[in-house]
Design a protein that fits this description.
By secondary structure, the protein is α/β, with parallel strands linked by helices. Helices cover 37% and strands 14% of the residues. The strands form five sheets. The chain has a seven-stranded mixed β-sheet, sandwiched between helices. Strands 8-7-14 form a three-stranded antiparallel β-sheet, with no helix packed on it. The protein has a three-stranded antiparallel β-sheet with strand order 13-15-17.
């Protein structure tokens, strides 16, 4: 029996371990120099001006929604085929989530469905859009930016699956997923199965300095130590009656907004920074694995794969996931599990989660997303997947299908 093969797996090297242990023996476990070093390196990798490290991808979404100004009553559009956090961040702020269906070929939020939704409602009905680079396929953010500007909306790009992915815009320029050229904010996750593993962790990128400064405050309880931003008087800060001139004492800080403790630790940042050094290597390996799957299944009429539409778009898929569709998804899932291959399903449609059904969504609202869910299966995809393991996975899939 082959050893267990999961759908995703982190890879920890000696360099990663050394990076973490060096922090554990340093003066800082949190809020130390590794945080800024990781932020700067990640921003440079993505091509964004600013990056803010936070405790996880969900925290990144929450703070991005807060920074975008989501408030009770705001309506935000996103895809039903995503992890629930892409929608939940709107609810955390009291906003209303509105779903639109997916493109059946790419599995991404369908911009034509979004446009139709906007055209069916009065202007200013919707405040923002959260497209998702699902499986690592980069969304055409230029097209979404044009649509958002037409209707006066902001964009948060959920790029958790897509660090290193890019698309080519209408000017022939390669645009990295989450670089802030077209989206107001973008977010990433450093969960162990992602491209960059930090145990947990997340990042928010933006090119807007105002949003950047707001994010820095929101991730730490809404507190600032910058005296240029202080609202209280020097007398109040020092506790010295009548004091009107001088400097604010070093201990003083102000909570100016209701923020959260969404900080990343220094040893997580060190691990993330170490992993970032070989991000391109990992991405190349994911592409290689995808090409082997592509070749294995290209003439199999029982399997459908995510269509890259390369004729229309010049792009780089980041392959966080390799998703196939087939009629007997449950049968194949159970068969592979018997063979120690642990495939996964991404995702149960968010609008059919009990919480969102309580908001009024129901089966049949998004037939393409629901059909996708009934057929989708994510195959093992991670850089340390060996040729032997991948061949075994492919052989078992073919054996299952030929027995049908």
């Amino acid at each position: 029996m082959m050893k267990p093969i999961p759908y995703g797996r982190q890879e920890i090297t000696a360099s990663d371990i050394q990076a973490v242990t060096s922090v554990l023996t340093s003066d800082y476990l949190t809020q130390g120099p590794n945080i800024k070093a990781f932020e700067d390196a990640f921003a440079a990798y993505i091509g964004a001006k600013y990056a803010v490290a936070v405790s996880n991808g969900t925290a990144a979404l929450h703070l991005a929604a807060m920074a975008a100004g989501v408030k009770p009553g705001d309506r935000v559009i996103t895809t039903p085929i995503t992890f629930a956090a892409s929608a939940n961040c709107v609810r955390y702020c009291g906003g209303e989530v509105v779903f639109a269906d997916i493109d059946p070929d790419t599995f991404l939020l369908d911009i034509n469905k979004v446009r139709a939704l906007l055209e069916q409602h009065p202007r200013n009905t919707f405040q923002g859009i959260i497209p998702v680079d699902f499986a690592g396929y980069p969304v055409d953010m230029e097209a979404f930016r044009t649509l958002a500007d037409e209707y006066g909306m902001w964009i948060i790009e959920d790029a958790c699956h897509a660090p290193g992915a890019w698309f080519t815009d209408s000017k022939g320029v390669r645009q990295m997923a989450g670089n802030g050229v077209y989206a107001d904010l973008a977010i990433y996750s450093f969960h162990p199965v992602k491209h960059i593993a930090a145990g947990e962790g997340g990042m928010i990128t933006t090119n807007d300095e105002t949003l950047y400064k707001k994010l820095l405050t929101l991730r730490t309880h809404g507190i600032t130590k910058n005296q240029n931003d202080f609202s209280n008087s020097l007398e109040m800060a020092t506790g010295v009656p009548g004091m009107e001139t001088g400097t604010f004492p070093g201990w003083y800080m102000e909570m100016q907004d209701l923020g959260f403790n969404y900080r990343l630790t220094d040893f997580q940042a060190a691990l993330g920074l170490s992993q970032l050094q070989r991000a391109d290597e990992g991405l190349m390996r994911r592409v290689e694995i995808a090409r082997v799957y592509d070749q294995a299944f290209q003439h199999n009429d029982k399997i459908e794969c995510q269509q890259l539409q390369l004729k229309e778009r010049d792009l780089e898929h980041a392959y966080h996931l390799y998703v196939i569709k087939l009629a007997d998804r449950l049968g194949l899932y159970n068969y592979l599990k018997e063979k120690n291959i642990y495939a996964q399903v991404h995702y149960f449609p968010t609008h059919l989660m009990p919480y969102y059904r309580q908001q009024g969504w129901k089966p049949g609202d998004f037939p393409l997303a629901e059909k996708y869910y009934s057929q989708c299966l994510s195959l093992p995809m991670f850089p340390s997947l060996t040729e032997k393991e991948q061949t075994f996975v492919i052989d078992q899939i073919n054996q299952f299908l030929t027995s049908k």
